[in-house]
Structures are given as C-alpha cells and as structure tokens.
Design brief:
The complex is a heterodimer of chains A (505) and B (96).
Chain A: E1 9-17, E2 56-57, H1 58-70, E3 74-75, E4 82-85, E5 95-98, E6 105-114, E7 117-130, E8 134-137, E9 146-150, E10 157-163, H2 170-187, E11 198-205, E12 212-217, H3 220-239, E13 247-252, E14 257-260, E15 273-274, H4 287-293, H5 298-309, H6 313-320, H7 323-340, H8 346-364, E16 369-372, E17 375-378, H9 382-393, H10 399-411, H11 429-439, H12 448-460, H13 462-469, H14 475-486, H15 493-504
Helix pairs in contact in A: 2-3, 5-6, 6-7, 6-8, 7-9, 8-10, 9-10, 12-14, 12-15, 13-14, 14-15
Chain B: H1 4-13, H2 20-41, E1 61-62, H3 75-79, E2 85-86, E3 89-93
Antiparallel strand pairs in B: 2-3
Classes of the chains: A alpha+beta (505), B mainly alpha (96).
C-alpha cells in the first residue's frame, strides 16, 4: 500500500495532435508542414479571415472516437463545439473552437503500473479542439519585444485527454504519460516523434491544498521534472507557514523551474458559447463499428505474448512498450520460420532482442528506427537479427561474438549498401556477418584447433591436471580458461570442457 | 448591473484601452443589453430543451482530403494584409 506522505494529487491534460490526418480539423490545409516555411499551410479558415466557415473533418471525429474507446470512455450521444474566447496572437480569431459541456467522449480509465502495483487512473473526458498557431519569441518570453507567429499549426486537430487527479507521484504521472503515448501509437492516430505532437499541462496539489496548473511542458521528461520541482516548491510554501494559491505557472525547461504567470486572466474568463458555425454531431452510433476496427492494444498484446510465446511478463512488457519493438519481435519469429523452415524458440529470441539488442540501444540512447527524409529505416534490419540468432542456434558463433556483431551493426555508419535487400544475394545478412567475423579473426574455432589447444593446456598446466585428478573439480575451470585464452575466446566453452574431460580420461 | 470595474475587465479581456469617456458611454449601453436579457429571463423555460444551434441540422462533415472546400494560400498571400511581418512570420507585439 502506497502511503503518499505528501498527499500529492496530480491530474494531467494531454494534448495529442492528430497529425496522421491528411488535413486540419476544420479546413483542407495539409498537415504536412513540419519541414516547410512558416505560414505556407494556411487558408482563410485557419487564419480566421472574416466570412470563412469551418467544416469538420470526418476522419478527425473517427480518430477521436477511436481514442475515446481505447481509454474505455463512453462516446456521447450528442457532441458539439464551443468558442473559448481569449485574446492572444496564437489564435487569429480571438477564440478557439473547442468543446465544453458536450465532449465527444467521457468517463473512461486507464490502468497504469502505480507505486503499489496496478493503479487505475480515471479519464474525465477526451475532447476535440483546434491547435493554436506557433509563437516564436526572440530571446526569452519575458524579455523579447515582439512575437513572431506561424499559423501552419493553427487548426491542426487536437484531442485533449483530461485525467482525474488520480496520480500520487511524478513517477506515476510519467507512467501514465508513457501508457498514453503507447496506446496512441498503437491506434496510429498521431506520430509522437513530430515536434509538438504531445503537450502536457499538469495540475498538482499537496496535502489537500489548492492546485497549481503547470503549462508549457513540451516533453514527458520535462513533465516529470516540472512536477518534482512543483512539489518541492509547494512543500516549501507550507513549511514557511504560507498557503499555496491556485494559479497558472509556466515551466521554464532550461532552468527546470516553474514560474508564476501573474496574468490578469487568472479568472479564466473565457465566455464559452456554442459555436454557431458548426452544427452539433450525433455520432455515438459510429462507436460499435469503430470498436471493431480497434487494433490490439498494448495490454492485450502483452498478455498474448506471455500466453502465446511463453515469455516472461517483463520481456512482454518491455517489447510491447513500443509498437516498433513488438512488431520487430514478431517479424523476427516469422522470418526465421520462413527462412529456415523451423520455429525459433520465442524465449530465446526475446532474450536476444530485448536484453541484448534493445539493451545495447538503450545504452547508446538510440532507437530501433530512424528516419532519412520521410523513409523509416531500422537501425538493425531484422535479417541480421534472424541470421545472428540462427548462428547461435547452430553454435556457429559464441554468445560473445553475437553481442559483438550486434554492437558492430549498431555502431557502423548507416547508409549506402546497408539498406539493400539482404536475403538471397551475395550481400546476404549471413555472408556479411560471416565476413565481419572472419575479418576480425573472430570466427568460432572447432575441431582440431580446440583439440590442439586442449592438449597444450594439459601439457602446460601440470598442477591443474594433478589437482583435478586429486578430485578438485574446480581445477578443470583453469584448464578451460587456458583453452579459451589460446583460442582468443573463439572456442565454445562447453565443447572445450567436454574435450578436456575426454583427454583427461 | 455592469460596474465600471466590470467594464474595465471586459476591456482588458479584449485588450482594449478605454478612456474615461468611453467608460461613461458604454456602461449604460451594456446595461440596457443586460436589461433586455433580463426580460428574456422572465419567460418560463421549464422543460424546454436549450437551443444550442438554430439550424435543425446534425452531422455535416468534410472528407479528409487536401483542398476540398478551401484553397490554401501562399505565404505571400497569407501575409498580404499583415501590418507587420518578418521572415515569413506575422509580427505582433509581445503579450503576457
């Protein structure tokens, strides 16, 4: 049972940009603006020019329903849009089209791994809105004289997922955010790697006090830091006999502190009223059909991995924690079977893919995939992984050499021939790996070479031989070590042991 | 009843600078609008569904296709009415 000594309550509002849509939420402007000049993906609607009329993107509504269902929400019978009025240059109309008392979905939950095991975080609602434009300040926000505005982002479809204040520590909040990103990734509605794809506002209170709302958090790591800082700040206020006031605070990412915004708009005087340019929607009838199309979600896939492949829950959790790893794992299993006509032991594959390959990548801080232009590449093509595991199964290479090969593949420059289809050609993954081992003098040695090394080891270490014969089992290890040394680690230790035993009679 | 403070607050929300003369002028005007809504308040709306939209329509959609009902502008066109611009951006006074 988690005690929660500071009475921490955290609620999160996560803005997910539905950037996999082709167009914005209310106009036909393309969403593919990330590498383009400012104000080049705009039209009268998203610039808020007089007389322009919004029309909602059907796919955005479908995506919103998908997300709602994945978070166990109820899709509401009727839903509609409101104008949230505020005067700020990121919105040219001086209001944001958003939802208010009729959000598209509400009352859901998500299960996270909490401080004391499984923990339920309730979802208040998930509602649709338009993204504001992007502001660029010369220097820092509090020093620059003017603001530069790019409306390419203005009108992008956003889904704001609002949780109840059910998280009891920044760690739980981080777990919630990771889970949320994981689910969104599986739903294929947002590319989280794009700038501004997910933005977080955090509401934090301690000891039943007033809450502070922290804005301007642009990364999940930043979110955790902002929350840790904010808890310390509120504790210090209380310790000095003060009272935490309800306010909006700005997270300064560089300094890792939160600052009071001191804005007169604290009253949140948004004067919501129904958006007259958009008619209400009655789309709850779509939910059953959309539910049928939902992909297998992370928790379900994790359970299936454990049941179907017999791998540990830790492996399943780690592999399904990122869609690309879950797919990679299953692709390797399939390719291996196609290639060699026999099943690959899923546990063996999980250990090598998760512990070695993923471990090596975590150590390097790199990801399984990377982009060159708009094309996604694997840091290690699955053909290589299949080949390495094949070599291991046939005992063609030692474990150390397998690790060496993975490292080599990760560290070599990516480009040129690397992306060529590697199977059934002179450049096949197997050939490449063999050549690499040969070049480095790492090919596993067998037969005569090991025999000779064993004989030498016996001749050169009479003491160990005598000890072994006197009943000291451990003395054999010294002899195996000598064989490994002579073969520069290229012999298989177990084979070396067997040969030694044979020779020692 | 709209007080001078209310008026100043509403002015701030729209970033309008109001002179004392403006305030004298607008207070009675806004109050007469409020009074009119007060009259509407007298109507018994018990059990009547609020009118969220004046059109008896639901579910008007657009397909997710670039272009369609709207045409995107070039950067030059987008910026053509801007009083101030810089490097392809609109330029506005800093606001906090």
């Amino acid at each position: 049972m988690y005690e929660n000594p500071d009475g921490v309550m955290i609620g999160l509002e996560v803005h997910v940009q539905l950037n996999k849509l082709k167009t914005k939420i209310f106009c036909g402007c393309s969403t593919d603006y990330h590498n383009d000049p400012p104000n080049s993906h705009v039209c009268p609607v998203c610039l808020g020019l007089p007389g322009s009329m919004p029309v909602i993107n059907k796919k955005a509504v479908e995506a919103a329903i998908k997300v709602g269902l994945a978070f166990n929400c109820t899709v509401e019978e009727r839903t509609q849009f409101y104008r949230k009025n505020y005067f700020y240059p990121d919105l040219p109309k001086a209001f944001q089209i958003t939802q208010y008392d009729f959000p598209i979905s509400s009352n859901g939950y998500v299960i996270i791994e909490g401080e004391d095991g499984e923990h339920k975080v309730r979802i208040n609602r998930a509602h649709m809105e338009e993204d504001p434009g992007r502001l660029v300040h010369e220097g820092t926000i509090d020093k620059s004289k003017y603001t530069l505005i790019d409306y390419n982002r203005s009108g992008m479809a956003l889904l704001e997922i609002v949780s109840e204040p059910d998280m009891r520590s920044p760690k739980e909040a981080r777990r919630y955010l990771d889970k949320l990103r994981n689910i969104i990734e599986y739903l294929d509605v947002s590319d989280a790697d794009l700038e501004g794809a997910m933005r977080v506002d955090a509401n934090i209170s301690i000891m039943g006090g007033q809450r502070a709302e922290i804005k301007n958090i642009s990364s999940f790591k930043g979110a955790e830091r902002a929350m840790l800082f904010e808890i310390v700040r509120q504790k210090n206020v209380l310790r000095r006999g003060g009272v935490v006031v309800q306010e909006t605070r700005h997270f300064d990412e560089a300094r890792e502190i939160t600052l009071s915004m001191r804005s007169k708009e604290e009253a949140h005087d948004y004067r919501y009223f129904p958006e007259p340019d958009l008619v209400p929607l009655k789309i709850s009838g779509w939910a059953p059909a959309i539910k049928e199309t939902l992909p297998e979600l992370p928790d379900a896939r994790r359970m299936r991995f454990v049941e179907q492949y017999g791998i540990t829950d830790d492996h399943a959790k780690s592999l399904t924690g990122e869609l690309v790893w879950a797919n990679y794992y299953e692709d390797v299993l399939k390719s291996y079977e196609n290639e060699y006509g026999e099943k690959l032991d899923p546990k063996f594959a999980a250990a090598w893919i998760n512990d070695t390959l993923k471990g090596e990548m975590n150590y390097r801080g790199t990801s399984l995939t990377f982009k060159v232009g708009s094309v996604t590449h694997y840091a290690v093509n699955k053909e290589y992984t299949v080949a390495i595991i094949r070599f291991l199964n046939l005992k063609t290479i030692t474990k150390n050499n397998a690790i060496y090969l993975f490292r080599k593949l990760l560290d070599e420059p990516k480009g040129g021939d690397y992306y060529r289809p590697v199977r059934n050609s002179p450049d096949s993954a197997e050939n490449y790996l063999m050549l690499t081992l040969e070049k480095e003098g790492l090919l596993k040695v067998e037969g005569d070479i090991v025999e000779t090394a064993a004989e030498e080891a016996i001749t050169e270490n009479p003491q160990s031989v005598a000890d072994y014969r006197a009943g000291k089992e451990k003395a054999l290890n010294a002899l195996v070590g000598a064989v490994m040394k002579k073969t520069r680690g290229r012999a298989d230790a177990r084979t070396a042991r067997e040969i030694l035993l044979e020779k020692l009679g | 009843m709209i007080t001078k403070e209310d008026l100043e607050h509403i002015g701030w929300l729209s970033r309008l600078e109001l002179s004392d003369e403006d305030k004298e002028k607008y207070s009675p005007k806004l109050n007469s609008i409020l009074d009119y809504f007060g009259e509407l308040n007298e109507v018994d709306t018990e059990g009547v569904e609020p009118t969220y939209h004046v059109l008896p329509l639901y579910n008007v959609f657009r397909e997710d296709e670039v272009g369609g009902t709207t045409t995107s502008l070039t950067q030059d066109e987008a910026l053509s009415n801007a009083p101030r611009k810089q490097d392809g951006f609109f330029k506005a006074p800093r606001m906090m």
